[in-house]
Amino acid sequence: MPVVSAAVAVAKNTPLEVKELRLDDPGPDDVLVRIHAVGVCHTDATVLQVDAFPPPFPAVLGHEGAGVVEAVGANITHVRPGDKVALSFGSCGKCRECSQGHPAYCDEFYPYNFFGVRPGDGTPTLFDGDTPISGHFFAQSSFATMSLAHRSNVVKLDDDVDLDIVGPLGCGLMTGAGTVRNVLKPDEGDICVVYGIGGVGFGALMMAKALGCSTIIAVDLNEDRLALARELGATHTINGAAPDLGEQITELTKANSGVDIAVDTTGLATISKTAVSTLRRGGRLGLLGFYNQNGEGMDVAAIPLGSYVYGVVEGDSVPAEMVPLLVDLHRQGKFPFDRLITFYELADINQAFADSHAGTAIKPVIRFPRS
Fold it and tell me: Given this model, what pLDDT does residue 290 score?
């Protein structure tokens, strides 16, 4: 069993501790990956804070990993040692949703991503001494120098891809971009509003620009993020604290009778209500946040006739297709996600979480030393 350095979540709402752990040898469906860099995602923070979320603790989180394949199990044919890869979410590949091209809605999504053990046989992947701890988070647990990933979530990359930056494409950026491209599907010239300009929101904004939306309105509380949004494609920005937020959006979109597509990453019922109220008839809204509003919710009767409201996971993406597409858009200068990244060392991972929470870092990325 290889020895790895990992950031261990000992308990809820406690700082991560860097420890040496033992990683199990690859099983038939496993891919052993030496992690070069891993993004810090809001989902990691949510799991650390919200009691309703598994896995059991102690646990190693991290689910935006990128690295190089070290070894593969007997059933692995799509990658081999030496390949550069990005890691995304796990899925069974067999249920109806997976078979129809929607692995983000896999019937076994929780066992594959949140239970802390391998799906199927329930065996652990990480050990503190001889004691098993929760690993296999999003089929990877990539807050570690090496990861055992599952065949379903390993995406082969071209040899020239920069592994320092590509990890966040496996979840947060893919979620925002995929929601626009795969679910909301704007026509060229459409009006788009993005509520909440973090990593997910910027993914949505940049994809809306890449697909030709003519008016892109970014809404956030952080003025620095709004300034960057204007550089990366927003035609208008509004501070989300404005008491007349809905009226401002209505004024900007009145010639179109409202908003064509909207993405809400905030998880706030007040914002989702504004998003619905400003849609045009036939408009489309994607809800991406964790909504917990003590029973307060959207007024279904307020949804404009002919409009659609979608709850979206992972941008309804197929990682093996979506990650290379985003890499290609980046090469073309149409998806400049590297502008969002702030780098940290593993020892500073708690600072990375703090900076993300404070809004001073949009997409923290932990880089590991190269041997």
Answer: 67
Boundaries of domain holding 340: 3-170+336-367
Q: What is the three-class DSSP state of 57?
A: coil
The tens digit of pLDDT for each residue in 262-287 reads: 999 998 988 999 999 999 999 999 99
| Spatial distance between the Cα atoms of 272 and 269, rounded to a whole number of angstroms | 5
**How far apart, in Å, are the Cα atoms of 336 and each of 16, 332, 367?**
30, 9, 19
- Per-residue pLDDT, 296: 63
371 confidence band (pLDDT: 50, 70, 90): low
Q: Is the peptide bond between 58 and the residue preceding it cis, with omega within 30 degrees of 0? A: yes
Amino acid letter, 182 = N
- Report the number of distinct structural domains present in the chain: 2
Element (H, E) at 229: helix 223-231
* CB-based contacts of 273, cutoff 8 Å, min separation 6: 298, 299, 302
Decide: 288 and 175 in contact? Cβ < 8 Å: yes
Task: State the Cα–Cα distance between residues 5 and 271, nearest whole angstrom.
Answer: 41
Please tell me whether residues 181 and 298 are part of one structural domain.
yes
